[in-house]
Amino acid sequence: MLDVEKIRSDFPILNQKIYGQNLVYLDNAATTQKPAAVISKIGEIYNKYNSNIHRSVSKLGAICTEEYENARNTVCEYINAKSSRETVFTSGTTAAINLLAFSFGEKFVNQGDEIIVCESEHHSNIVPWQMLCERKKAVLKMLPFNDRGDLQEELLDELFTDRTRLLCIAQANNVLGAVNPLDRIIKKAHEKSVYVLVDGAQGIQHLKTDVTAMDCDFYVFSGHKIYAPAGIGILYGKESLLEQLPPWQGGGDMVKTVSFDKTVYADLPLKFEAGTANYVGAIGLAEALKYLNVIKLDNIHAYERKLTAYALKRISEIQGVKIYGTSENKIGIASFLIENVHHSDTGEILDKMGIAVRTGHMCANPTINHYGITGLVRASWTFYNTENEIDILCEGIEKAKKILL
Ligand code: PLP
């Protein structure tokens, strides 16, 4: 099991007071905190070898480029991609999905074709596909979820037609916390020759992720949700597919030669990395993954499962509190409401007690609308959180009830 006190000391931000109270950081689904190893790696880059990558002939440029490409290899190993050609650095999940919506759309989507997204997706995995469908006069279809938060996967048989090109699905949901049954769904999609994009923004930090075994066609995630800096993310794609897609953005680094007659694009993955990449973020991401490799995801997973069971039990026992999303297989998320209390009032009171949570629609309007409500309070935890912090949250909810009701 984990030595959580030791782990907490690896995250300097956790050791501080907010409004005179110990910080209880329970907003990890929005972004995670960074271990000292990542923070000091960023310092090392700027202190020792900062230089533009793939361009500078200097020694510094060579070191920085090597660190950047080594970071790509670290990511590849972490998600078990077959080759570094399958792993593109982007600025995050949103950028990766927009890249795909353009490039996949250009290659594979024509008028009358269909894209399926799940009702429970984050806006990032809905809006780019709506924009594509508008552009191409294609049809956006929706796979609904039931009140527990589980996808109604039995409806897929009706939804798939011979015009369906792509299914877009989260590995785990950012409001309800449900872990989607990807194995079954990807198999079903492939039987109908439908490609699958998995949004791993809420999965990669909690679940063992092997893109080759999962057999998804595309997988995306954001570094900042897995203890790495903001502004870096990953688009994984099967090499045979990425090869067929046109580039999204043009510029430096994504070309072999440029003339006014003809431009020859770079090979994968640089074809999709126009402009100076966020090499500091990429190197920081690799450092975060190395940190996790030392702690071991299996240990993290076991600890988080226990903490999740504890938290869901404790919160659901509070009278007048309803948790939304009761799927059996959940990541560390509890989205809830105190009966007759506005979500943002609860969030503000918890904040004054040093407890950081998220409130509102959480970039998932269709999920919130499903329940006919205007927003939720979301507490989300990870392997540096403790049962004691969950107890403090529960005391905070009780206090909020007293103040607001
Ligand atoms: N997809 C899911 C499931 C998310 O939870 C998020 C962020 O909360 C995103 C996509 C967007 O991630 P980013 O804002 O890092 O691009």
Which radius of gyration do the C-alpha atoms yield?
A: 22 Å
CATH topology of the largest domain: Aspartate Aminotransferase, domain 2
User: Into how many domains do the coordinates divide?
Assistant: 2
- Kindly name the structural category: alpha/beta
Write out the CATH superfamily name of the largest domain.
Type I PLP-dependent aspartate aminotransferase-like (Major domain)
Distance N to C terminus: 41 Å
**CATH architecture tag of the largest domain:** 3-Layer(aba) Sandwich
**Helix count?**
14
Set out the fold topology:
Layout: H1 4-9, E1 17-18, E2 21-22, E3 24-25, H2 36-49, H3 59-79, E4 87-90, H4 93-108, E5 114-118, H5 127-136, E6 139-143, H6 156-159, E7 164-170, H7 182-191, E8 195-199, H8 211-214, E9 218-222, E10 233-237, H9 239-244, E11 255-258, E12 263-265, H10 279-295, H11 297-316, E13 321-324, E14 333-338, H12 343-352, E15 355-356, E16 358-360, H13 365-370, E17 376-380, H14 387-404
Parallel strand pairs: 3-15, 5-6, 5-7, 7-8, 8-9
Antiparallel strand pairs: 1-2, 4-10, 9-10, 11-12, 13-14, 14-17, 16-17
Helix pairs in contact: 2-10, 3-10, 4-5, 11-14, 12-14
Bound molecules: pyridoxal-5'-phosphate.
Search tags:
single chain; about 400 residues; alpha/beta; Aspartate Aminotransferase, domain 1; Aspartate Aminotransferase, domain 2; 2 domains; seven-stranded mixed beta sheet; four-stranded antiparallel beta sheet; 14 helices; about 15% strand; globular; binds pyridoxal-5'-phosphate
Give a structural overview.
The structure is a single chain. The chain has 405 residues and is an alpha/beta fold. The chain folds into 2 domains: 4-30 and 296-404, Aspartate Aminotransferase, domain 1 (Alpha-Beta Complex); 39-293, Aspartate Aminotransferase, domain 2 (3-Layer(aba) Sandwich). Helices cover 40% and strands 17% of the residues. The chain has helices at 4-9, 36-49, 59-79, 93-108, 127-136, 156-159, 182-191, 211-214, 239-244, 279-295, 297-316, 343-352, 365-370, 387-404, and strands at 17-18, 21-22, 24-25, 87-90, 114-118, 139-143, 164-170, 195-199, 218-222, 233-237, 255-258, 263-265, 321-324, 333-338, 355-356, 358-360, 376-380. The strands form 5 sheets. Strands 4-10-9-8-7-5-6 form a 7-stranded mixed β-sheet, sandwiched between helices. A 4-stranded antiparallel β-sheet has the order 13-14-17-16, covered by helices on one side. Strands 1-2 form a two-stranded antiparallel sheet. Helix 3 (59-79) packs across helix 10 (279-295). The radius of gyration is 22 Å and the shape is globular. The model has no long low-confidence stretch (mean pLDDT 97). It binds pyridoxal-5'-phosphate. Residues 92-94, 122, 124-125, 170, 174, 199, 201-202, 222, 363 line the site of pyridoxal-5'-phosphate.
